[in-house]
Specification:
The structure is a homodimer of 145-residue chains. By secondary structure, chain A is an alpha+beta fold. Chain A is built from three helices and six strands. A six-stranded mixed β-sheet of chain A has the order 2-1-6-5-4-3, with helices on one face.
Amino acid sequence: MKKALFASPQDAESAFYEALTKADLDAMMAVWADDDDIYCVHPNGARISGVESVRESWRKIFASGQTLRFQLRESQTVQGMMLSVHSVYEHVTIAGETRPRGPMIATNVYLRTERGWRMVAHHASPVSEPAAPTVDDSPPSHTLH
Amino acid sequence: MKKALFASPQDAESAFYEALTKADLDAMMAVWADDDDIYCVHPNGARISGVESVRESWRKIFASGQTLRFQLRESQTVQGMMLSVHSVYEHVTIAGETRPRGPMIATNVYLRTERGWRMVAHHASPVSEPAAPTVDDSPPSHTLH
């Protein structure tokens, strides 16, 4: 199978959300590093580690048949030579629904490999607080850890 | 103020959880990089960015007066030269309660700075699924993204 090479973490991130939108499992797994240390935390979920388990988790999600649209906002990056950490708000709309679901916040980690930049970690969680910042960036109050 | 130098990401991580347990705000902020790009996602929360906002969020948490105990399990690391990404299950017990709360999963990111390894990102989320893997590592079913 011909695998895509991603020249930048941003290229890998674009391919990740495109694969999610298209529910394309092969395209999704082409974004991930071929490594047992990769991990994925779906919203409210436990950690899933390794290529086979990560693939199986996406297969089940894609098998649900829902078509998702993602609007990404407020991307923020910490960039190293070999690793790149992106934080992004995911505003998800499910096809057939008129209003977006509450936002998710995702931490996406990319590794520079011999085959280009690949995802090594995806940690997504729902933002269930009121007043998540979208235009107003004043800090909301927090009482939980 | 004398600031600690952390020789490894693990040293910084140990100091982070010690500061949390002691509700020591200065010790907590000594772990974080002095950088506007740092960010923190508390469980169920929105993203908080920058030193001042991150500090204020911990101040409010510590002001609640709860004493927390953390048991860390199943640590997993992706290590680069300048960045280190740790995933860890946090089993939290609140003083006065006999049973631990449901586990959290945290992604902790450390940056190698001129002043040693420092935290640049903390993203924690509750694991609300049943059957979070602790001994059995078979993947749980997922229907959400």
